[in-house]
Amino acid sequence: MVNLLLFLELLHKSLIKDGGKKLNNKIVLTTERLKIRHFTLSDTKQVYKMSREEGIKKWLPDQVYKNKEEAEEVLKFLISRYQYIPEINKCPYVFGVELKGDKELIGHVGLSQVDLGVEVGYGIADQYKNKGYATEVLKDFSKWALDDLNLDKLWGIVDQNNIASINVLEKSNYALKDKSKGKYRYVYE
Questions:
Q1: 72: how many CB neighbours lie within 10 A of its CB?
Q2: What are phi and psi of 150, to 5 degrees?
Q3: 189 exposed, middle or buried (CB, 10 Å; 0-12, 13-18, 19+)?
Q4: Has this prediction a pTM greater than 0.70?
Q5: Residue 128 class from Cβ within 10 Å (0-12 exposed, 13-18 middle, 19+ buried)?
Q6: 35 SS3 class
Q7: 12-70 residue pLDDT tens
Q8: If we measure between CA atoms, which residue out of 76, 71, 72, 78 comes closest to residue 52?
Q9: Neighbours of 30 (CB within 10 A)
Q10: CB-CB contact of 123 with 108 (8 Å)
Q11: Distance of CA 146 to the CA centre of its chain
Q12: CA-to-CA separations, 36 to 24, 70, 87, in angstroms, rounded
């Protein structure tokens, strides 16, 4: 993970040097039960806690942090990107997902560059799984990404054994495009 922190630091410096385009409005989406919002440093404890859960360890191992300090450094980088128009080809653009009522952070959703184009990624804390939250977030977030970021499609790439995530993609109107090397590739257009 030290390499991840070094990578994020170097990427951040190169983006600042490039000037980046300023983003003037705060991006916040709401669904029936959830709010998709910017991360804050007050999310550090919960982000670290979620990174230690079995689901994250199994399906998103690059999002497992060794301590709260590492989680905070990643959050600082993600937060720094909110002031700029998303340049997904240069760095990930990730938001927190919280319950509307009690404002508890329960997951994340974001975009990043892959060889096929732009991939959507998401994760919900173990205690909130099987309640339809991931599908609710993914439906609205995917529509927003295509409409507001002028993307022509999004990819959902999932391990063939991650049945829960496959179900989320299918319920969120992603179509299976191919299966190879243990991965399923879904597209949203």
A1: 17
A2: 55, 40
A3: exposed
A4: yes
A5: middle
A6: strand
A7: 444 443 443 334 445 579 999 999 999 999 999 999 999 999 988 999 888 999 999 99
A8: 71
A9: 11
A10: yes
A11: 15
A12: 18, 23, 19
